[in-house]
Specification:
single chain; 300 residues; mainly alpha; 2 domains; 3-stranded antiparallel beta sheet; 3-stranded mixed beta sheet; 9 helices; globular
């Protein structure tokens, strides 16, 4: 009795040959991982009423879970970053912009959902809004799940005016409204399942790195850029509905491009669209934004 290279025993009897075929445990485990990943993917897909698109959000992650994580992250940031005095002009101006944007969320959400024949979920009803300006040279702002907003002082000279600042803040608020944080956590879990499957299948480190690079460029990065584009659109509608001039978005992103000093990575390798792509998208959205301004801005 001998064994073939795959570990199967074989021999001869009566001039005939009989072979037995074994099944690799690793292959069984890999198939099981793939089956579970497929189940996880399809069972956690849902339609976002504000975009009309299918999104992947783990059903075990509730808006309340996101809110708790957002609060924890916000408290940690405030311990590390120095908030500007709430009585300064910039702090008051940023809070006013936030208040005007927040006031328009219900109407804009209903309008966007109606475009897709759906109803908005209005998760913002449970948000505990808070706004701070943080002393930092970063040209940035954020809105964490649950409504914790911060604007870095480094953004102020780039924004230059309230209209542009409203575009940025509307964009950040939209990330929270569209539950992009929960989507990213779900994507990370899916990627971890892939890594586990690769490890169990016997891939070496180089093969695993290659597979994850393909996943990154083919799935993860395009998904992140899509989220940015979604936030650009709804953020623009929020700013317009709150009586800010959405046309300032184009000049803003021209200044953003200049502020980066040409150091931004190529778009295919980035989580964000480049400034040129954003400007094109925003210009295409401008007629809709002006319609939202006419429709929802009571000052008109």
């Amino acid at each position: 009795m001998r064994q073939d290279p795959f570990g199967n025993a074989y021999g001869s009897r009566g001039g005939g040959q009989r072979r037995g075929f074994g099944f690799s445990p690793r292959l069984l485990i890999l198939v099981a991982f793939i089956a579970y990943a497929a189940y996880y993917y399809f069972s956690n897909r849902t339609t976002d009423p504000l975009t009309g698109e299918k999104v992947l959000i783990d059903r075990s992650i509730s808006p309340q879970d996101e809110k708790a994580l957002g609060l924890q992250a916000y408290q940690e940031i405030l311990q590390q970053e120095r908030p500007v005095d709430a009585n300064t002009d910039i702090s008051r101006q940023v809070r006013e912009i936030a208040q005007r944007l927040i006031a328009k969320i219900p109407a804009v959400s209903d309008a966007l959902a109606a475009e897709h024949g759906l109803q908005a979920q209005h998760i913002e009803k449970d948000f505990d809004w808070d706004v701070n300006v943080l002393q930092s040279d970063q040209v940035n702002a954020f809105c964490l799940p649950g409504g914790k907003i911060a604007v870095y002082t480094g953004l102020v000279p780039v924004a230059q005016n309230a209209d542009a600042m409203a575009v940025v803040m509307g964009h950040e608020i939209t990330h929270a409204l569209l539950r992009h944080g929960a989507q990213r956590m779900t994507e990370q879990k899916l990627a971890q399942l892939g890594q586990m499957a690769g490890a169990m299948s016997g891939m070496d480190a180089q093969q695993m790195q290659m597979v994850m690079a393909v996943y990154g460029y083919g799935r993860s990065l395009p998904y992140a850029r899509k989220q940015e584009t979604q936030a650009d659109e709804m953020g623009l509608m929020l700013a317009a509905a709150a009586c800010y001039n959405p046309q300032e978005a184009v000049a803003l992103w021209e200044r953003m491009g200049q502020a980066s000093g040409g150091q931004a990575p190529p778009e295919f390798a980035s989580t964000h669209p480049n400034s040129g792509t954003r400007i094109q998208n925003l210009q295409a959205l401008m007629p809709k934004a002006m319609e939202y301004r006419k429709r929802f801005c009571e000052q008109q």
